[in-house]
Write a structure and sequence with these properties.
The protein is α+β, with helices and mostly antiparallel strands. It is about 35% helix and about 35% strand. A hairpin with a 2-residue loop joins strand 6 and strand 7. InterPro entries: Acyl_CoA_acyltransferase, Bact_Acetyltransf, GNAT_dom.
């Protein structure tokens, strides 16, 4: 099945709500992440990206933390961004939406002059990120009671 979709920076309340709806579907409902852990203060300052089908149905989302927010999340310097909250609705998996969202976040990072992007990947998704050029580092750690690894890609 081929589905035409586009990826864009989420602008305005309607786009943000679409991002949050995808995250609620994937993280809260599907994976059981507590709602209070899923949404945080970074949501107000992050750059969000949104994948939408031609008819406007939201398919996926991700966000980029940069500057002081990224330093607080990654412990790295301010030239490293933090990709997070990457979520693709169940109906859109296997269509390339996740990879398109990662590329969009990387494009935003480059536009802001960042030299690298870090992320905390659920361990089952390591191969996905490795195919996109990310390298794991450090030990496995729990986040929302799920195993994760830190990963980085130099831009």
């Amino acid at each position: 099945m081929t589905t035409a979709y586009g990826v864009r920076e989420a602008l305005g309340t309607e786009d943000r709500e679409a991002c949050f709806a995808v995250r609620r579907e994937v993280f809260v409902e599907e994976q059981g992440v507590p709602r209070e852990l899923e949404y945080d203060t970074y949501d107000t300052t992050a750059v969000h990206v949104l994948a939408v089908r031609e008819d406007g149905l939201p398919l996926g989302t991700g966000r980029l933390l940069h500057g002081a927010d990224a330093v607080g999340r990654t412990g790295a310097d301010a030239s490293v961004g933090s990709l997070g909250r990457l979520a693709v609705s169940k109906a859109a998996r296997g269509l390339g939406v996740g990879a398109a969202l990662v590329r969009a976040v990387e494009d935003v990072a480059r536009e802001r002059g960042l030299s690298a992007v870090d992320l905390h990947a659920q361990t089952h998704a390591l191969g996905f990120y490795e195919r996109l050029g990310y390298e794991a580092y450090g030990p496995e750690f729990p986040d929302a009671d799920m195993p994760h690894r830190a990963m980085r890609k130099v831009l």
